[in-house]
Amino acid sequence: MAGLVHPANMPRPFSAVIVMLGSTAAGSTTEREDGMPESVYKVIELIGTSNESWEKAAANAVELAAKSLRDLRVAEVVKLDIQLDAKGKVEAYRAKLNVSFKFEGS
């Protein structure tokens, strides 16, 4: 059973806060009566892959999303799994993420 990892020793899911500098979200915030801005965020699900690690799988998903989405806010890892070949050898690490970004109303 060499190579198997006990569930207690598995890496725990993590969250990463993503801040995009220099981006704007015109018209996406309003001011509440108490002076605090209100914002709306959209959440999408992404699955990143890597041949090296779960961390790189998550980073790959966020980096690719950042190329086409503005104002990314939070990336939450919700599931980690491994793609195996027919002999049980690791082919890829996969990270499923919920990624939020500021919603721009029309």
Distance between the termini: 57 Å
The helix fraction, in percent, is 10-25%
Uncertain segments are 13-28
Strand order of the largest sheet: 1-5-6-4
> What is the mean pLDDT?
78
Rg from alpha-carbon coordinates: 18 Å
Count, helices: 1
Order of helices and strands: EEEEHEE
Strand fraction band? Answer: 35-45%
| Overall morphology | elongated
Structural class: mainly beta
The major sheet is characterized as: 4 strands, antiparallel
The strand count comes to 6
Describe the structure.
By secondary structure, the chain is mainly beta. Helix content is 12%, strand content 42%. The chain contains 1 helix and 6 strands, in the order ββββαββ. The protein has one helix spanning 54-66; strands at 15-17, 29-31, 37-39, 41-50, 72-84, 90-102. The strands form 2 sheets. The chain has a 4-stranded antiparallel beta sheet with strand order 1-5-6-4. A two-stranded antiparallel ribbon has the order 2-3. A hairpin with a 5-residue loop joins strand 5 (72-84) and strand 6 (90-102). The longest helix is centred in the middle third of the chain and has 13 residues, at 54-66. The termini are far apart.
